Amino acid sequence: GLAHEINNPIHTILTAAEFLRVELESQSPEHSEYAQVISEQCSRVSRIINGLLAFSRQDRGGRVPTPLRSVVEGAVHLIETALVRDGVHLVLELADDLPLARCHAQQIQQSLINVIENARDALDDHHPPGAERRIVIRARRRDEGPQTWLRITVEDTGPGIPGGILDRVLEPFFTTRSPGLHAGLGLSVAHGIMKDHEGSISLDSRPGAGTRVFLDFPAIHSDLPRTPLG
């Protein structure tokens, strides 16, 4: 309820700032820039509030058998333009034998987008000039005993995560970047969503060797021909 009460005036301020920006664009460019700053900061507050809502939400509705390929491709479609603009080379490797998942497609996409954005931020931090900026997204089935799992892997060529903080990156509000830029909710929201889907999120990272983030959750069927996980 508090989040919604904050969002309402924020949206009003954002709308008013946008009107001011357009009105002042030709009359006073300097003041138009101030209006632009107001708009950007209102949008940031709104994103933080939406992150808090997603983190606290326990929505078990809307779960239907869904092809994982369409979920991953939908998430990539939403963020691909921003990655290309930032000079990030995106590689997509999706297996042909992906079983269905009983999931809330939008929530899984949100988890994946949060992880991808985190990888993009890693490429922005301390990345040597001229070094390759690459994110690889893989989707594979993973057989363990009688259960078939789905694994989405997001791998980046960033600087990696120091071992001393690797265990903390899933904590709410934990961030290695400026608090003014990030609220530290992206991975914790993804963690909550995966846990709610009876799955998990885990990381494999070493300083100087990039980071791999694994999103694992159960598939619907486990009686399909097995393919080794690459």
Features:
alpha+beta, disordered C terminus, 230 residues, globular, 6 helices
List the helices and strands and how they pair.
Layout: H1 2-27, H2 29-56, E1 64-67, H3 68-85, E2 89-94, E3 100-103, H4 105-124, E4 134-144, E5 147-156, H5 163-166, H6 186-196, E6 200-205, E7 211-218
Parallel strand pairs: 2-4
Antiparallel strand pairs: 1-3, 4-5, 5-7, 6-7
Helix pairs in contact: 1-2, 2-6, 3-4, 4-6
Could you explain the architecture of this structure?
The protein has helices at residues 2-27, 29-56, 68-85, 105-124, 163-166, 186-196; strands spanning 64-67, 89-94, 100-103, 134-144, 147-156, 200-205, 211-218. It has 230 residues and is an alpha+beta fold. The protein has a five-stranded mixed sheet, with helices on one face. A two-stranded antiparallel ribbon has the order 1-3. Strand 6 and strand 7 form a beta hairpin. Helix 2 (29-56) packs parallel to helix 6. The longest helix has 28 residues, at 29-56. The protein starts with a helix and ends in a 12-residue tail after the last strand.
